[in-house]
UniProtKB/TrEMBL annotation:
Keywords: Membrane, Transmembrane, Transmembrane helix. GO terms for cellular component: plasma membrane. It comes from Micromonospora sonchi. GO terms for molecular function: ABC-type transporter activity. The keyword Repeat does not apply. This is ABC transporter permease. The chain crosses the membrane at residues 20-37, 119-141, 162-185, 205-231, 238-262, 314-331.
């Protein structure tokens, strides 16, 4: 019997894998439902209601201006201290009607071209979390229950066994991530049709969406590999989960506070979520408002630091090589018992 097919079947039949997958997909489904009910399709009725709201807002501003002008004239006539009023009370006027734009009062609508790429980030984040936890549990449970030792009696090649198990994990997650991403495309397209607009989606936009979705799938595989490697290093699922809690919550929050207190420039460049975000968005621009870069016009602009997906790819590659390499080395060198 093929070891790969055996591991793939074991992965699919694990209850923890099924429950984590179902939970992740349920969260994604709830996001789609929330988008559906919190957005509206903009039509003549919505524009008419927005015009009425803008007119009402203008009337309220005019009434406020008239009341304040009357208060100003009354206070000056009474000889009161009116430093908070302008020298001429006639200067207190309401805004012109055209200053209050009707589009400000339109309900939320889902514009596919503007919103979809941003909506790929929660998809990648949730699937990456599922991949990390499932990957850690998949190998951690084998060590914890003694299943790894029994498996090595059948196939004594340690590295082959561990890499085959990792290959089955990645294949299983790929089989989850690709259809989930396709379903995410379809679901949000339907939301845009019914509760927004799909106008302006060109072939270039589709290409950008597909590349962002592909980067999301890669992020899921990276997270699963790191979780798998950490659990294999500690020979327990808790090693990976505890390490994730320590790094993401204690380490990152504590580091962010420390960097803020030390007033380090571009402190976000030291935080892992920044690189995950730049991986998905292709580039992230960090600004340091404590620095001033003068321009020819005399304007003071903050110093900037751009992090691109290439920077993130280097970090992810180093992380995978480091953790997976350590897991393979310990698998080969340490006693299995």
């Amino acid at each position: 019997m093929s070891l790969f097919r055996t591991e793939l079947r074991r992965l699919a039949k694990r209850r923890f894998t099924r429950w984590m997958t179902a939970g992740g997909l349920l969260v994604l489904a709830l996001i789609v439902v929330g988008l559906f009910f919190t957005n509206q399709k903009i039509g003549p009725d919505q524009w008419a209601e927005a015009k009425r709201s803008a007119d009402q807002q203008h009337q309220e501003q005019m009434q406020w201006a008239e009341q304040e002008r009357a208060n100003c004239e009354r206070a000056k006539a009474a000889g009161e201290n009116v430093d908070y009023y302008p020298p001429d009370c006639a200067e207190i006027t309401g805004p012109p009607r055209e200053a209050i734009e009707e589009k400000w009062f339109l309900p939320s609508t889902f514009v596919f071209r503007e919103s979809f790429e941003e909506m790929l980030i929660p998809l990648a984040g949730i699937l990456a979390m599922v991949g990390f936890v499932v990957g850690a549990s998949f190998v951690g449970a084998e060590w914890n229950t003694g299943g790894m030792m029994n498996l090595l009696l059948w196939r004594p090649k340690r590295l082959t066994v561990l890499l085959t198990k990792l290959g089955a994990l990645l294949a299983g997650l790929l089989a989850l991530a690709v259809p989930a991403t396709a379903a995410w495309f379809g679901s949000l397209w339907l939301v845009a049709n019914w509760r927004g607009t799909t106008e302006g989606v060109t072939s270039g936009a589709w290409q950008s969406f597909l590349l962002t979705g592909l980067r999301g799938v890669v992020l899921v595989l990276v997270a699963a590999t790191v979780g798998f490697a950490l659990a294999s290093l500690g020979r327990h699922t808790a090693m990976a989960l505890g390490g994730a809690v320590a790094v993401l919550i204690v380490g990152q929050v504590g580091l962010a506070i420390l960097l803020s207190m030390a007033q380090v420039r571009f402190a976000q460049a030291w935080l892992l979520p920044t690189y995950a975000y730049s991986w998905m968005r292709k580039t992230v621009t960090l600004e340091d408002w404590r620095s001033c870069e003068a321009t020819y016009t005399g304007e003071c602009k903050p110093a900037i630091l751009e992090l691109t997906w290439q920077h993130s790819s280097v970090l992810f590659t180093v992380g995978v090589v480091l953790f997976l390499g350590a897991a393979l080395w310990t698998m080969r060198r340490r006693d299995v018992a």
